[in-house]
Design goal:
325 residues; alpha+beta; 2 domains; four-stranded mixed β-sheet; three-stranded antiparallel β-sheet; 12 helices; 11 strands; 17% strand; globular
């Protein structure tokens, strides 16, 4: 049986944000910089690459301890606002925009950061959840974020969604898990080959590890009363995803993994959506409601594939000419 496409959320009838808010309110604290520069960067092995440079107040030593960063971002907002940083809580289109960075150019990554802010990745740990010093205790942030780290994070998100989708019908081969930086020896040692149950447990653990960090999402209880004397108390659960878009992205992914049997990736616009109609046949393209309206998406996709076939035929023809020459 052909595996389903990788999948995230409900674009046909509601955005993922609206679905989440139907369960409880949500706070995503995103800080957007006044400018983002692409700068030369040299990694720990001396390899030259590109990184994003974010502005910080003069006199603030780097790398910045996460505890200090939390204080500045949450309690002393004027420090960053004074040099042009601004706050936003808007996260519509965040996930599909981030997934595109899996193969994004430095300029595309910088444009994304200009809209959504830094990754706020810890510069001290590869996985803060596994750090022996406790979550956040020794975590630090550097205003120079390697573009390779951005691509890896987007590639991991894309791989998790594909694995979660394919696990609905079959065990996922090592070649896909490899995109999550898993080596063959580890894959075989964990006896994951052909074992859907083990793979499902591992996938949940990998997503949880990304949620467990200095900015781990937490659920709070909030109560308020209106201005009128007779107003009742309004109490609700509030999901606080902490500083930055990264936690919000992984929380969306965690939530979407719970509903993957209803969600698909549109072959026309590459956006995740939820089908309100029957499931698509495995051997056919599938389109969201917007792309189905006038049939243009199907025609456009056919044209793209037809051009690729023509290029392949031309290449084969040239190779045959070379062989006969």
């Amino acid at each position: 049986m052909e595996p389903l496409s990788p999948q995230p959320w409900d674009g046909a009838s509601q955005s993922p944000e609206r679905f989440l808010r139907s369960l409880f309110d949500r706070i995503s604290y995103l800080l957007v910089p006044p400018q983002v520069k692409v700068a030369p960067y040299e990694d720990a092995d001396g390899v030259k690459a590109k990184a994003l440079r974010f502005p910080l107040p003069a006199g603030l030593a780097t790398p910045v301890p996460m505890a200090r960063l939390r204080e500045i971002a949450m309690l002393r907002q004027d420090v960053l606002h004074a040099i042009g940083w601004r706050q936003t809580e808007e996260t519509d289109d965040l996930l599909p925009d981030f997934l595109r960075l899996a193969s994004g150019t430095p300029r595309e990554v910088a444009d994304f950061a200009s809209r959504w802010g830094p990754l706020w990745l810890c510069a001290a740990h590869t996985n803060c959840a596994l750090a022996g010093d406790g979550l956040g205790a020794a975590c630090v942030w550097s205003p120079l974020e390697p573009i390779a780290a951005w691509r890896r994070e987007a590639q991991a998100a894309d791989a998790v969604l594909e694995i979660g989708s394919r696990l609905n019908v079959e065990a996922v081969p090592y070649e896909v898990w490899q995109r999550l930086d898993m080596d063959r020896e580890q894959f075989e040692r964990m006896k994951l080959e052909g074992d859907r149950r083990q793979q499902a447990h591992l996938l949940a653990g990998l997503v949880q590890a990304r949620l467990d960090g200095p900015w781990r999402p937490r659920v709070c209880l909030s109560s308020s009363i209106g201005n009128d004397a007779g107003d009742a108390v309004s109490t609700m659960l509030v999901l606080d995803t902490g500083l930055g878009f990264r936690s919000a992205v992984w929380h969306q992914i965690a939530q979407l993994l719970c509903r993957l049997d209803e969600v698909y990736i549109c072959d026309g616009c590459s956006r995740p959506y939820q089908r309100g109609i029957r499931k698509p046949r495995p051997d056919q393209d599938n389109f969201c409601s917007d792309c189905r309206k006038d049939g243009k998406a199907a025609k456009r996709l056919w044209a793209v594939r037809n051009r690729e076939k023509m290029k392949e035929k031309a290449l084969i023809y040239q190779e045959e000419l070379c062989d006969t020459a």
